[in-house]
């Protein structure tokens, strides 16, 4: 990880702790994207003064505003056709 934080952080789990960790890992001017859906009533603590002063962006994404039933099939076909290449050695951070 960089000393100043990451440009983009994604919380795909959707829990108070993971949302807060993703936000803290985001650099000044960076964007935190919340993808995972937390249980109803669970709230993360995001310091609003820091959010504004560090010009961070906090975004919620619900399946990218698309239908998961349609999107997952398209993504799978895209992967099968070689349109998405992902190599992970199991040790490095993605």
Instruction: Give the uncertain stretches in residue-range form.
Output: none
Number of domain modules: 1
Element-level helix/strand string: EHEHEH
| Sequence of strands across the biggest β-sheet | 1-2-3
What's the short version?
The chain is an alpha/beta fold and 94 residues long. The protein has helices spanning 16-25, 48-53, 68-80, and strands spanning 6-11, 26-34, 57-60. The protein has one domain (6-80): 3-Layer(aba) Sandwich (Rossmann fold).
List the keywords.
Rossmann fold, 3 helices, alpha/beta, single chain, 3-stranded parallel β-sheet
Describe this structure as you would to a colleague.
The protein has helices spanning about 15-25, 50-55, 70-80; strands spanning about 5-10, 25-35, 55-60. The protein has about 90 residues and is an alpha/beta fold. It has one domain: 3-Layer(aba) Sandwich (Rossmann fold). Strands 1-2-3 form a three-stranded parallel β-sheet, covered by helices on one side.
Task: Detail the topology: elements first, then pairings.
Blueprint: E1 6-11, H1 16-25, E2 26-34, H2 48-53, E3 57-60, H3 68-80
Parallel strand pairs: 1-2, 2-3
């Amino acid at each position: 990880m960089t000393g100043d934080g990451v440009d983009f952080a994604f919380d795909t789990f959707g829990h108070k702790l993971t949302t807060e960790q993703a936000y803290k890992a985001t650099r000044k001017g960076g964007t935190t994207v919340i993808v995972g859906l937390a249980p109803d009533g669970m709230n993360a603590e995001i310091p609003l003064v820091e959010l504004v002063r560090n010009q961070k962006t906090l975004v919620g994404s619900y399946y990218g505003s698309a239908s998961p039933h349609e999107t997952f099939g398209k993504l799978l076909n895209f992967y099968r056709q070689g349109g998405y290449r992902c190599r992970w050695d199991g040790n490095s951070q993605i």
